[in-house]
């Protein structure tokens, strides 16, 4: 039996809001984790500003470990940790924990890739002028790679949207939860189609915004 969409729209809007909140909070927290890790991967690697093989291999191993775990498995595996941190294993707040652990290492690799695109000559010139490693990071690496970082963060954000939908399998809230609860389990095709359309709109909007910001930064 199909639901009355006129009566169901408030729930759809609420689910959309939950998805945006999940993605926003997760992106913010994951960026706080991923950007510093990405910087450390670049400056501690062989030939880096503060070369340290032990630190580089340690961070790289941890990142590779988390990146090798499929999100749906990570989601279930850390349920006890999620319950400890937020007091529940279901709902929007609970979905943020695995989303951060999933996207943080991913962002670290993306930032690493962006920073490695910075021309070595620019870095060497800053070193020749007596700039400290910290000054080079702040005044050379990040400004030069900012356009690329914005694009890569856009990619990470879109990945978070997909992962947040997957969190619906364990009651994570948002559009994914709505699609599973009504579109899949209750065979409400209308709800499934609407959630898919909304997710596509969100992704397209994020990609367009990311492209615009990247182009604006590149022209400065």
What share of the residues does DSSP label as strand, in percent?
A: under 5%
Q: How would you sum up the major sheet?
A: none
Output the helix-strand order. HHHHHHHHH
Average residue-wise pLDDT: 88
Tell me what the structure shows.
There is one protein chain. This protein is mostly helical and 220 residues long. It has a single domain, classed as MetI-like fold, CATH 1.10.3720. The chain is 81% helix and 0% strand. The chain is built from nine helices and no strands. The protein has helices at 5-43, 53-67, 71-77, 79-86, 92-116, 120-128, 133-166, 174-184, 189-219. Helix 4 crosses helix 5 (92-116) and helix 8 packs antiparallel against helix 9. The protein starts with a helix and ends with a helix. The model has no long low-confidence stretch (mean pLDDT 88).
Quick overview of this protein structure:
With 220 residues, this protein is mainly alpha-helical.
Task: Give structural attributes.
MetI-like fold, 220 residues, 0% strand, mainly alpha, single chain, 81% helix
Topology:
Blueprint (H helix, E strand, L loop, with lengths): L4 H39 L9 H15 L3 H7 L1 H8 L5 H25 L3 H9 L4 H34 L7 H11 L4 H31 L1
Helix pairs in contact: 1-2, 1-5, 1-7, 1-8, 2-5, 4-5, 5-7, 6-7, 7-9, 8-9
């Amino acid at each position: 039996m199909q639901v009355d969409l006129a009566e169901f729209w408030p729930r759809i809007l609420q689910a959309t809001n939950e998805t945006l909140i999940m993605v926003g909070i997760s992106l913010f927290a994951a960026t706080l984790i991923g950007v510093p890790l990405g910087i450390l991967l670049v400056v501690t690697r062989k030939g880096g500003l503060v070369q340290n093989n032990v630190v580089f291999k340690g961070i790289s191993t941890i990142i590779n470990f988390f990146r090798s775990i499929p999100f749906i498995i990570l989601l279930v595996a850390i349920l006890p940790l999620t319950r400890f941190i937020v007091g529940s294993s279901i709902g929007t707040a609970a979905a943020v924990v695995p989303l951060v652990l999933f996207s943080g290492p991913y962002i670290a690799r993306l930032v690493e890739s962006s920073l490695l695109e910075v021309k070595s000559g620019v870095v060497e010139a800053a070193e020749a002028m007596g700039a400290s490693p910290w000054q080079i990071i702040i005044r050379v690496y990040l400004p030069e790679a900012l356009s690329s970082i914005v694009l890569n963060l856009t990619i990470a954000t879109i990945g978070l949207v997909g992962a947040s939908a997957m969190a619906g399998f364990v009651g994570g809230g948002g559009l994914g939860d709505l699609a599973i609860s009504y579109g899949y389990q209750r065979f409400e095709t209308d709800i499934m189609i609407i959630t898919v359309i909304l997710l596509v709109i969100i992704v397209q909007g994020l990609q367009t915004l990311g492209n615009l910001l990247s182009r604006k930064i590149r022209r400065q």
